[in-house]
Amino acid sequence: MTTYYNGFPQSDRNETIHMVNVDELEERAKKVMPEGAYYYIASGAENEWTWRNNIASFNHFQIVPRALTNMDNPQTDTEFMGMKLKTPIMISPIACHGIAHKDAEVATQEGVLLQLGMLLNMKIF
């Protein structure tokens, strides 16, 4: 049975997405998400001024590895403010996690540092 969130069909798929960069993640998400849900998540508010400036700011930085030795099994885990992360991905507060997956914020926080907003789709504590 398909469940819906604000008119969007919700996914219950749980799979590993193999990607090298954010562009590959966006391309994969665009293929599996309903169009309206994808564009809600992949865009910014109003005229997208903040979204564009955030991207421009991040383009001034690079992640430079200290050494490229033994790349047979690369490790992406790291620590941030005492928290161990599987990947160096952090998610700021956004609304409507339920349009991406039926488990909403619970699914979003798997393997990333998630900063929660004031309004949640479900009780997670």
TrEMBL record:
Residue span(s) of domain FMN hydroxy acid dehydrogenase: 14-125
GO molecular function terms noted in the UniProt entry: oxidoreductase activity
Pfam families found in the cross-reference section: FMN_dh
Gene3D superfamilies: Aldolase class I
InterPro entries: Aldolase_TIM, FMN-dep_DH, FMN_HAD
Residue stretches in coiled coil: none
Keywords noted in UniProt: Flavoprotein, FMN, Oxidoreductase
Cofactor: FMN
Matches recorded under PANTHER family: 2-HYDROXYACID OXIDASE 1, S -2-HYDROXY-ACID OXIDASE-RELATED
Protein name in UniProt: L-lactate oxidase
Annotated source species: Lactobacillus acetotolerans
